[in-house]
Amino acid sequence: MAWIFLLIAGLLEVVWATSMKYSDGFSRLWPSVLTIVAMIASFALLSASMKTLPLGTAYTIWTGIGAAGAFIVGILFLGEHLSMMRVLAAVLIVSGLVLMKLSS
Length: 104
Description:
Layout lengths: L1 H21 L6 H21 L5 H23 L6 H20 L1
Membrane topology: Multi-pass membrane protein
Family: Belongs to the drug/metabolite transporter (DMT) superfamily. Small multidrug resistance (SMR) (TC 2.A.7.1) family. Gdx/SugE subfamily.
InterPro entries: EmrE-like (IPR037185), Small_drug/metabolite_transptr (IPR000390), Small_multidrug_res (IPR045324)
């Protein structure tokens, strides 16, 4: 169950990072509300996963899902630049996540 909590927490990190972008510096109400709600839920699920998983593993996986997910959202929905260097960086992040999972 801890891995499921961690996966959902990581996906919620992508949600709050994206909604924070749309909140325009917390000047728009609903994206700001979504940011706060998704943050709280993400932290709560991360905390629940840490009851079982080691700190280093849980935090690395959580931030990795958030980083890779935000990268994908930025490319697909926000028109961010796609380059080989950025793709390589994302591949390295995902490779690190896989290695961290395999080591746990």
